[in-house]
Design a protein that fits this description.
Number of helices of chain B: 11
Number of helices of chain A: 5
CATH architecture of the largest domain in chain B: 3-Layer(aba) Sandwich
Structural class of chain B: alpha/beta
Number of strands of chain B: 23
Shape of chain B: globular
Order of helices and strands of chain A: EHEEHEHEEHH
CATH superfamily of the largest domain in chain A: ACT domain
Structural class of chain A: alpha+beta
Distance between the termini of chain A: 21 Å
Strand order of the largest sheet of chain B: 4-3-5-6-7-8-9-14-13
Oligomer: heterodimer
Strand content of chain A: 25-35%
Number of domains of chain B: 2
Number of domains of chain A: 2
Helix content of chain B: 25-40%
Chain lengths: 144, 432
């Protein structure tokens, strides 16, 4: 199962990031996890939110470039080498990781968000393994 | 030194008589040999006999770059190709090339005019002059070369590109003169300073043109190199470099009125403006055989004075250029129309994105940046996709205008709009 990530384009200027968080707050949307990929001129803000569809609408209304992307969220138990095991499964399936970032959760387990070169293949490989996927409901309501 | 005192120091009356005689001849020539000119004159109800003197010039229709394009490549030539010994074409533009042809006499006149410019810069037969304009279709290289040879100087045809070699030869040969664009001269000065060679050069004077520059820049470069720098004006449609140059007093550029008749008109009403007032420079070639230009609208904004100069020359002087009356930009010596950039952007995505061209001058070198708003259809969650987009745009722009631009992706709706319409060009270069 895929979960929706929201991506927002922001220029490297003071106050841009803040504006995004303000819009989300005004619309009562909770940020579950955040990751920022940056270049010298701009950044891509990738967010896991309580309501990504609503977020896209309100951010676009505010004139920002925003889109949702299907990503995979996998539960990782807190053991040495766990992430390596997951990556071995992906490379075994011939899938390349485009980006990934941690998903903060309140309990003792961690989770990771993945975007790969072939999301369907990655999903199949992970489903066939012992790793557990996070559901949409679990993810969006995380840390509520 | 004044190269041609008889022509450069004429009284106003003598000059008017000469111009009148030459204009009558030029009008006759185009009426009988160039169909588009004849048609234009007929539409205006004019015959060559209606032009009796220079004061009648205002009756004649204007000529523009479009006339050259519409009659591409040789449609405005007034002589058979057997009489044409050289072709040049306008710089750096795709699909907008304007082609000009020269007879042997045109080449001689051109050399004479450039020799006058060199003499105005204090150069003569005992000087060694490096020509560091590009040699080729661009008029700078060969135009400068023939003029410097006509002067009798020792000419070193450097062309552009190898700055180290240019400086080495400048020192080894003891070169005293240099012709190149102002921004290239700045670059040369920087390299000379970096290598600590200022004491080794014998350079006295430079002639710099083909792109706009400021009085400030001129003074700065003179101090840095311990030389005297001169502004040389020209355009291929009229001839090439050597239409006008400033003398030692640097109070405007002397235009060689015996060959090029200058008018300053209001770019909107096209009516003449008085001396001292800014308007568009319009030039009529009085002696050109290959491709005569009647009232050619240069789109360059300037003002004119007919007062005698302290140097002794009586030729009219045009002021340092104040800009353009169309949207053409001159970036690093290359003519760029914003429409070319727009067409290039169109090839990348099929739809014109919101964009803005930003031209600036950093360390005396022109910089070109293009802001492109990131719209939904080319937005991505991956940096590498956006970087690919930037590369594609950069490539398309380079193909179209021959210049490398920095492509900056910006948020939607951030490009400045004036009355709801996006501002397409911001030129931050200060030219006064």
């Amino acid at each position: 199962m895929f979960i929706k990530q929201l991506t927002v384009f922001i220029e490297n200027r003071a106050g841009r990031l803040e504006q995004v968080t303000q819009i989300l707050k005004d619309n009562n949307i909770n940020i579950v996890s955040v990751s920022l990929a940056d270049t010298s001129d701009y950044g891509l803000l990738r967010l896991i939110l309580s309501d990504p569809d609503k977020a896209v609408t309100v951010l676009k209304e505010a004139g920002l470039s925003a889109m949702t992307t299907n990503v995979i969220a996998v539960k990782l138990t807190q053991h040495v080498g766990k992430l390596g095991e997951l990556l071995a499964i992906l490379s075994g399936a011939g899938v390349n990781v485009e980006y990934m970032y941690g998903l903060t959760s309140g309990d003792e387990n961690a989770s990771i968000v993945l975007k790969t070169s072939d999301q369907n293949k990655a999903l199949d490989a992970i489903t066939a393994s012992t790793f557990e996927l996070l559901t949409t409901e679990e993810t969006y309501s995380m840390n509520d | 030194m004044i190269w041609n005192e008889a022509r450069e120091c004429m009284s106003r009356d003598e000059m008017n008589n000469l111009q009148s005689a030459r204009l009558r001849k030029a009008v006759n020539r185009v009426y009988h040999n160039v169909e588009p000119y004849r048609k234009k004159m007929q539409e205006a109800g004019l015959e060559p006999g209606d032009i009796n003197g220079i004061e009648d010039i205002e009756k004649l229709p204007f000529t523009t770059k479009d006339d050259l394009r519409d009659n591409y490549p040789f449609g405005l030539f007034a002589v058979p190709l057997s009489e044409i010994v050289r072709i040049h074409a306008s710089s750096g533009t795709t699909g907008k090339a304007t082609v000009v042809g020269y007879t042997r006499k045109d080449i001689d006149v051109w050399a004479e005019c450039v020799a006058r410019c060199c003499a105005m810069a204090g150069l003569g037969r005992n000087d060694i002059i490096q020509v560091a304009y590009g040699y080729g279709l661009f008029t700078g290289g060969l135009g400068g070369h023939y003029g410097a040879e006509h002067l009798g100087a020792t000419v070193v045809p450097m062309s552009t590109g190898n700055t180290q070699k240019l400086i080495d030869m400048m020192i080894d040969f003891g070169a005293t003169g240099l012709m190149c664009t102002p921004s290239y001269l700045m670059h040369i000065a920087e390299v000379i300073e970096e290598r600590g060679l200022k004491d080794k050069i014998k350079l006295k004077a430079t002639l710099n043109g083909a792109e706009p520059w400021t009085e400030n820049m001129r003074k700065q470069i003179e101090e840095r190199l311990g030389i005297e720098a001169h502004d040389i004006y020209g355009l291929s449609e009229i001839m090439g470099p050597g239409v006008a140059t400033d003398c030692h007093f640097h109070r405007g550029l002397h235009i060689f009125e015996d060959h090029f008749y200058p008018e300053i008109v209001d770019p909107k009403t096209l009516k003449p403006v008085p001396d001292g007032e800014t308007g568009e420079l319009v030039i009529t070639t009085l002696t050109k055989e290959g491709i005569p230009m009647i009232r050619y609208r240069t789109k360059d904004l300037t003002s004119i004075t007919h007062e005698k100069c302290e140097c002794g020359r009586t030729t009219a002087r045009i002021s340092r250029f104040k800009g353009r009356s169309d949207d053409m930009l001159i970036i690093r010596g290359v003519n760029v129309f914003p429409s070319q950039v727009e067409a290039a952007l169109l090839t990348v995505d099929g739809i014109t994105p919101n964009y803005q061209i930003i031209v600036d001058r950093v360390n005396h070198q022109d910089t070109l940046a293009i802001l492109v708003e990131v719209e939904e259809r080319f937005f991505s969650d991956e940096i590498k996709e956006l970087e690919n987009l930037q590369k594609k745009i950069e490539h398309a722009v380079h193909q179209a205008i021959g210049l490398h631009a920095k492509i900056k992706l910006v948020e939607p709706k951030t490009i400045e709009r004036s009355m709801g319409k996006a501002v397409r060009v911001i030129d931050k270069r200060k030219l006064d």
